[in-house]
Amino acid sequence: MNKEIKENVEQQHPLIHCITNYVTVNDVANMILAIDGSPIMADEIKEVTEITSITNALVINIGTLNQTKVESMIAAGKKANELHHPVILDPVGAGASTYRNEVTERLLKEIQFTVIKGNISEIKCIAQKTNTTAGVDANDADLVNEANIDEVLAFAKKLSQQTGAVIAITGPIDVVCDTEHSYLIKNGHPIMSRITGTGCMLAGVIAVYVAANPKQRLEATAYAVTMMGVAGESAYDKMCQQKVGTSSYRTYLIDAMSMMSHETLNGGMKVEIQ
Fold first, then answer.
1. pLDDT above 90 covers what percent of the chain?
2. What are the boundaries of each domain within the chain?
3. CA triple 65-40-76, angle to 5 deg
4. Architecture of domain 3-273
5. Which residues pair with 167 in a beta bridge?
6. What is the CB neighbour count within 10 angstroms for residue 34?
7. Each residue of 141-176: pLDDT tens digit?
8. Whole-structure pTM value
């Protein structure tokens, strides 16, 4: 991983506009702050375009939808496109309901996304119109593994070609790809799925890193995903040492991200570049 990716974040402190869900909004804000970014959470239609105008990137998270928020997402997304700001889509729970699928399709039609990040079931819903999502979680039968990695890479690259976006698929093996290159990231820990918001937090991290590295969006996304995985492992080790539970794990995860150096990342990462 290129050290310059992280240095650009530390020098620029990108301001990120998040239209996200109320379940995880506090964790997303704290995670963005932990990695030298700055968050602003605004979803009122009367101000979203103005807020987008003063920020460096936009996150659209569909975790808790309503009609008013959808219109705010569209308005903010179009403004970000107009200003050539990165836009990250987190299609939380895509496949769980007809309405959620309709909103996702509309967002993809009306907004040019820089990165689309989701679990395997969410991305399959977008790419293949399947409905295997288990609520907001990935279906166990969909999870990326050594046996199906070639299939996953094929449809992820096809989706990148169709959307013009970097595709980031999270799971036991994280996949980050565009039409030509891919990163297979084997960091992280299963306990990350036992706290709410790790995926939402990651979308914020990706936004910070892509905002600071707009000409290296693939590598910046891979850097962000790898950071989160390495931090997840570190937080689990500390949880075990302290003999505490998942609430402490959330705190340790944010701690690990805030303390992450480039050297720590390089020393702990398990990444294959194709």
1. 86
2. 3-273
3. 55
4. 3-Layer(aba) Sandwich (3.40)
5. 116, 177
6. 21
7. 567 777 788 888 998 999 999 999 999 999 999 999
8. 0.94
